[in-house]
Structures are given as C-alpha cells and as structure tokens.
Specification:
Blueprint lengths: L9 E8 L5 H9 L4 E5 H6 L6 H10 L7 H17 L9 E5 L5 H6 L4 E10 L3 H15 L7 H15 L1 H5 L4 E5 L4 H13 L2 H8 L3
Parallel strand pairs: 1-3, 1-4, 2-3, 4-5
Helix pairs in contact: 1-9, 6-7
Bound molecules: adenosine-5'-diphosphate (ADP).
The site of adenosine-5'-diphosphate (ADP) has 18 residues, from helix 1, helix 2 and helix 3.
C-alpha cells in the first residue's frame, strides 16, 4: 500500500455500462494493445479462492445481483493493482489503466479519487434491456457465469446498475464519451479508439519510443 503512493495517480480510462453492454469485451481488446493495461474488477473477484472469506462474500453478493461492500472492493482492487505494478505488468509511467467494473458507485469513485486520474469515461449505452439480457443469457451458458443464469438475478443487476452505478455519470460529467453499445463489437471498439486518440494524454504517450 505505502509503496504504491510513490507513483502519481494512474492515468485512467473508465469503461462504464450496464451488465451485458460489452465492457469486458472492449476492455480485453484494448488491454491487448501496447500502452494499455486492462483490469476488470469482476475478474479479480472471480479469481479469488472461494474458500477465503472474501471469496465467500463475492459469491454471496454477486449471486444476488448486488455489489460487494465498497471498502472490501476498493482494498482488493488496490492490492491487485499494486501487485501488477510490482511485477511490472502494469507500468503506470507509460501505460493507460483501462478499468471496467470499478468504480461502480459514488462511494467507490470517492475512495479511488487519490488513486486514479480519470481522463475519459466511455459510456457503453444500450437502452434496450432485452438485448442486454439476451447477451447475458448467452454468456451464462458459454462462460459458466452463475450470476447471469437466472432472469431474476439479471433483473436485479440492471436495477443495481440504475440505482448505484449510473450516478457515476454525473460525478464524471464533463469527461463522458457516449458510445452506442448496440453496434457490432468492432464498431464499438472503433468509436472508443477514436475517443482515446483525441486525448492529450494519449498523444503524449504515443510520442514515447519505448
Ligand atoms: P458485468 O461485466 O456483467 O457487469 P462483472 O463481472 O463486472 O459483471 O461483476 C460481477 C459481479 O461482481 C457484480 O455483480 C458484483 O457482485 C461484483 N462486483 C464486480 N465489480 C464490483 C465492484 N466494483 N464493486 C462491488 N461489487 C463488484
């Protein structure tokens, strides 16, 4: 924890959107491009040993479509990003951090205020909930995601998103780029990259010959 403070705030891009909007898909692709490092909070939770108390907490909350408590989530996130810095996997001096799934409510945004410098928030917007639910049901089968398996939990996750996550759009209000998430994934990626390339911070990083 203390060592991580020697770094300035992480230059960060946020991918925000309802469950099924394609945050993970886009984050993964972007993270495979040099100078971008992707971290999905849900993946960090899913990698926990389910025998640990935190692993149990994750199962308990996510299977109800609810968020894991904020202090635990942000602590876990900090420990995870710290490991990535220490292992030189993520190089904060030259890489953009692409976060998906965190911060997920105002409290988390406030807790992370000293950790991240948010250059842009890409809002993957898809008002058609039936399309999102269709994608989640498909993912449940393919990726064995228990939290996507029942319509009741899917519905609850949309509700959690509307009530807790959407207010973040107001918090970062002058840094939002709206992206139409109902488009094919390649076009969504194109729109995100177009937005990234407008950023002065990206233009600086792009000049580096590393
Ligand atoms: P999706 O990509 O479908 O939105 P995630 O994989 O990001 O789903 O998250 C799955 C579950 O993990 C969430 O429903 C929640 O219970 C838990 N979770 C993930 N990120 C957070 C977070 N930042 N704060 C609290 N809980 C989280």
């Amino acid at each position: 924890m203390s060592e991580i403070k020697k770094y300035a705030k992480f230059s960060t891009l946020l991918i925000l959107g309802a469950p099924g909007s394609g945050k993970g898909t886009q984050g993964k692709v972007l993270g495979s491009v040099p100078r971008f490092h992707h971290l999905a909070c849900g993946d960090v939770f899913r990698s926990l040993d389910t025998r640990t108390s935190l692993g149990q907490k994750f199962i308990e909350y996510s299977s109800r479509g609810e968020l894991v408590p904020d202090d635990l989530t942000v602590q876990l996130w900090r420990a995870n990003i710290h490991q990535r810095v220490e292992s030189h996997n993520f190089k904060p001096e030259i890489d953009f951090l692409v976060l998906d799934g965190i911060p997920r409510n105002l409290e988390q945004a406030e807790l992370m205020e000293n950790d991240i410098d948010v250059h842009r928030v890409f809002h993957l917007s898809c008002p058609d909930r039936s399309e999102l639910a269709r994608r989640l049901r498909k993912r449940a089968l393919k990726d064995n995601r228990f939290d996507d398996a029942s319509d009741a939990v899917i519905f609850k996750r949309f509700e959690t998103y509307d009530q807790e996550t959407k207010p973040i759009l107001e918090y970062y209000k002058n840094r939002i780029t709206e992206i139409d998430a109902s488009q094919p994934p390649a076009k969504v990626l194109y729109d995100i990259l177009h937005g990234v390339m407008q950023l002065p911070a990206w233009q600086e990083i792009a000049k580096l010959n590393v």
